[in-house]
Amino acid sequence: MNNENKKIGFFERYLTVWVAICIILGVAIGKFIPLIPETLSKFEYYNVSIPTAILIWLMIYPMMLKIDFKSILNATKKPKGLIITCTTNWLIKPFTMYAISSFFLYIVFKSFIPTDLAKEYLAGAVLLGAAPCTAMVFVWSYLTDGDPAYTLVQVAVNDLIILVAFAPIVGFLLGIGGITIPWNTLILSTVLFVVIPLLLGFITRNIVIKNKGMEYFNEVFLKKFNGTTIIGLLLTLIIIFSFQGDRILNNPLHILLIAIPLTIQTFLIFFLAYLWAKAWKLPHNIASPAGMIGASNFFELSVAVAISLFGLRSGATLATVVGVLVEVPVMLMLVRISNNTISWFEKNSYERG
Questions:
Q1: Gap between the terminal Cα atoms of the chain
Q2: Residue 256 vs residue 73, higher pLDDT
Q3: Nearest in space to 184 (alpha carbons), one of 29, 308, 28, 340
Q4: What global pTM score does this model have?
Q5: What is the DSSP letter of 194?
Q6: How many CA atoms lie within 13 A of 50 on its CB side?
Q7: pLDDT mean over 55-83
Q8: Per residue, what are the HEC states of 311-333?
Q9: 116-136, pLDDT tens digit by residue?
């Protein structure tokens, strides 16, 4: 637990509590003060919430500052972690999501969910399964002391694959002919959540180091951003759940039922990638983000596609929202598991391999 105590202070250690409070607060705002989400919804561009994008910048920017950009080139020379990420995310995850969700929605919960509605929920689950995380994974990587440069490379590779693989996989699994993907949403999300904070981090790092030196940058400047990532996460959750307050309150049982296969899928994919990395003798700072990126989802894209394909009030859209609801507490559990199993990994084995 030494690594966890060093990395996660009091505020971060009880993050699950703050997350629960923010989810409840967000739902309450959506229910009792709907003017707030109605006003925020006006600040959207191609289904991407600009206020949410700004808060995600707050989450990601401090991590981008820590990246030595020369190390990105070195990361691309270490293919094992990328092989695990790509195989898990694109050859396994969408299909296990379809299989697990179908089993629960069509068989286990058959007496609780009408068939037509189960199909819509399955569609939402598949949209989540075909969209690995591109933004929040930086937070999970940070909380497990993952290699930020390697995490960036993993995200960049996934972004490129999403552009060509997302639509065909979703279309194949759901049998939707002529599926329409909001490419503007996809491209804009990538620019907002990866490219912009990366450029800002690069520019800031170079300017500060050039004027103040590396020691000042590491010992003084970076510490100014302590807590920024977590604050950005909590404020983002309040906004997201303020938009979904009514939908969550009106479907409590179905939300629970949808959450079960999504949770099982999340644990399955994490441990598949995490243990694969262990078997390949990769270090913990590569193994952890490799597991996190597949376990978490690109929910901005999933929600946007669900709305464009099935409508705002559809079961598919509700399922993608449940994905957001489930993701944060489950991923925090995986963060704790990852931090508690650092001893499973040899620190320098990757360099030797």
A1: 27
A2: 256
A3: 308
A4: 0.75
A5: I
A6: 8
A7: 76
A8: CCCCHHHHHHHHHHHHHHHHHHH
A9: 889 889 989 998 998 887 777
